[in-house]
Design goal:
Largest sheet: 7 strands, antiparallel
CATH architecture of the largest domain: Sandwich
Order of helices and strands: EEEEEEEEEEHEHHHHHHHHH
Distance between the termini: 39 Å
Shape: globular
Mean pLDDT: 82
Number of strands: 11
Helix content: 25-40%
Strand content: 15-25%
Radius of gyration: 20 Å
Strand order of the largest sheet: 1-2-3-10-5-8-11
Number of domains: 2
Number of helices: 10
CATH class of the largest domain: Mainly Beta
Structural class: alpha+beta
Low-confidence stretches: 1-7
């Protein structure tokens, strides 16, 4: 277990699979979703931006958020209440272990991976309330759960999901072949680099056709447009910080032409990069 504190934001981490966060009203924290997550809100507000759609969760709300680098999570206080939530983070290793022990006869054969990355669960379901209310003592950093207990809670969370929507199986157990590299992980780390699609496909262990097919399961955008959008998002964040010059930012995120960058930026954010601060 570790307790991190940054500008009043307190984070309780247990074995990399359990996360509790809380901080006061008036503060916010934004990050992208790197793992499948089941989140339960005790107080405050979680704003989930999935492409152009925004969903807000409040006290008692529960949702599954699929691993998706295009999803942005903003955590903040709400109506005088601090942000307080628990996240069950389903790592690839945990999911593989769970799947290996699961009775495959329980899995639907016609499950389809949804393009929607957010699934809001009924807040009043007894299994959901029981799971997360039993975890409230862990907000006290002096109470540390054992690894066995944590795993039981993770397994309980998995059955909450499996009993919610059969199509979630297609996301939870969508394991790539061992020799293939996770596409979105690679894209997130290399969007600023000058790589052709053929090179990206090769680096991720795929033919170009297989890469395009696999990528279409993860994004509504074709790869080239995803890269441009991701570069613009990175540029926007840097411009908002006000720490670097626009020209420097343009080239650092992967654009080769300042005029093209300015035009694309204005098309996405409605103003020129110079006026984006």
């Amino acid at each position: 277990m570790s307790l991190d504190s940054l500008k009043g934001i307190k984070t309780l981490r247990y074995s990399d699979i359990f996360l509790a966060m809380y901080f006061d009203d008036g503060m916010s924290c934004l990050h992208r979703n790197h793992s499948h997550v089941l989140v339960y809100m005790y107080s405050g507000e979680l704003e989930i931006k999935e492409r152009e759609k925004i969903t807000k969760l409040h006290k008692g709300d529960c949702a599954f958020i699929r691993k998706d680098f295009s999803v942005q999570l903003t955590k903040q206080g709400y109506k005088g209440q601090q942000f307080k939530a628990i996240f069950l983070m389903f790592t690839a290793q945990f999911l593989r272990d769970f799947y290996s022990k699961l009775d495959k006869r329980l899995l639907p054969k016609d499950a389809h991976r949804s393009r929607v990355s957010l699934c809001k669960l009924p807040s009043s379901r007894p299994d959901i309330v029981s799971l997360f209310e039993s975890m409230t003592p862990y907000f006290n950093s002096g109470v540390q759960p054992t690894d066995d207990l944590l795993r039981l809670k993770m397994v309980e969370g998995m059955y909450v999901l499996l009993n919610t929507d059969k199509d979630l199986c297609a996301s939870l157990f969508d394991f790539v072949d061992p020799w293939k590299i996770d596409i979105m992980d690679f894209m997130e780390k290399n969007y600023m680099n000058d790589l052709t699609l053929e090179e990206i496909a090769n680096y991720t262990g795929r033919s170009l056709a297989t890469f395009k097919r696999d990528f279409s399961k993860l994004s509504d955008l074709p790869p080239q447009k995803w890269i441009v959008r991701r570069r613009l998002e990175a540029a926007h964040a840097l411009i908002q910080s006000g720490r670097r010059k626009v020209t420097e930012i343009c080239f650092s995120v992967g654009f080769k032409n300042l005029s093209h960058f300015s035009k694309a930026y204005k098309g996405m954010y409605g103003c020129s990069p110079a006026n984006g601060i």
